[in-house]
Design brief:
By secondary structure, this protein is mainly β. The chain is about 0% helix and about 50% strand. The protein is built from no helices and 11 strands. Strand 7 and strand 8 form a beta hairpin. It is globular.
């Protein structure tokens, strides 16, 4: 059974950094596309960053220049490096594997002023 396991959330002050990781377990093949989404208070879930099998990377305008999505060093992992965090980045961050229609359980990121 394929599952997405996220880690790395936590609390940080504005201007700080956090690194989220997502591992796709139970996969017999390598991942192609994967992405990070988030749900912030009072808003619907939104795209944060994704990469595709063709190498395209997309970022939400609100995180461009501050967040970086990349493949992790371990097989079938994806990392979201978040720098210069803002209070408005607070929310639950979800990993998504679109080829399987799977979501991770979510990890909470809290940025305080």
């Amino acid at each position: 059974q394929v599952q997405l396991v996220e880690s790395g959330g936590g609390s940080v002050q504005a201007g700080g950094s956090l690194r989220l990781s997502c591992a796709a377990t139970g996969l017999s093949v390598g991942i192609s596309a994967m992405g990070w989404y988030r749900q912030t208070p009072g808003k619907q879930r939104e795209l944060v960053a994704t990469f595709t099998g063709t190498g395209n990377i997309n970022y939400a305008d609100s995180v461009k220049g501050r967040f970086t999505i990349s493949r992790g060093s371990a097989r079938n992992t994806v990392v979201l490096q978040m720098d210069s965090l803002k209070v408005e980045d607070t929310g639950v961050y979800y990993c998504r594997l679109p080829t399987r229609g799977l979501w991770g359980q979510g990890t909470l990121v809290t940025v305080s002023s």
